[in-house]
Amino acid sequence: QVQLVESGGGLVQAGGSLRLSCAASGRTFSSYGMGWFRQAPGKEREFVAAIIWSGSTTYYADSVKGRFTISRDGAKNTVFLQMNSLEPEDTAVYYCAGNLRSGGYYVRFTTNYDYWGQGTQVIVSS
Fold first, then answer.
1. Fewer CB within a 10 Å sphere, N or C end of the chain?
2. DSSP H or E segment with residue 120
3. pLDDT attached to residue 27
4. Cβ–Cβ < 8 Å for 114, 1
5. Whole-number average pLDDT of the chain
């Protein structure tokens, strides 16, 4: 079993920054890539960013492109999401997703991942 544990959420003013972390543990973890999703109250879970483990190819939702950066520490099986210039619309629970099966167009679909963290709350005040 693989566990994904997120951390780094919190309350921040608009224009501020937060850095989320997701650490993978459990049985030997081998993944094509990992991703971040978010879910605001009353809305569906939506794709934020993904990274391919080898080569570090990254993907972003249009709404966060230029403001968020996904990165990874392969040695520690950890993925990060640096969030800058935060807006109230970024308020959501952010989820780490593991074991991405395929890249490209498919990184945006929740069904393309096998493991999920418990989520970390991000609140951006105006």
1. N
2. strand 120-125
3. 66
4. no
5. 92
Q: What angle do CA 78, 79, 85 make, to 5 degrees?
A: 145
Positions of E strands within 33-87: 33-39, 46-52, 58-60, 68-73, 78-83
Q: Is 120 a residue whose pLDDT tops 70?
A: yes
What pLDDT does 46 receive?
A: 98
Give the span between the Cα atoms of 44 and 100, in whole angstroms. Answer: 19
Q: What is the mean pLDDT of residues 72-100?
A: 93
Q: Which amino acid is residue 24, in one-letter code?
A: A
Burial zone of 107 (CB within 10 Å; 0-12 exposed, 13-18 middle, 19+ buried): buried
Place of tokens 């952010």: 94
Pairing of strands 46-52, 58-60: antiparallel
Q: What angle do CA 41, 14, 68 make, to 5 degrees?
A: 80
3-state secondary structure of 74: helix
Residue 54: both structure tokens together: 């080898």
What's the rounded Cα separation, in Å, for the pair 92 and 121?
Answer: 6
Asked whether residue 2 carries a pLDDT value surpassing 80, the answer given is: yes
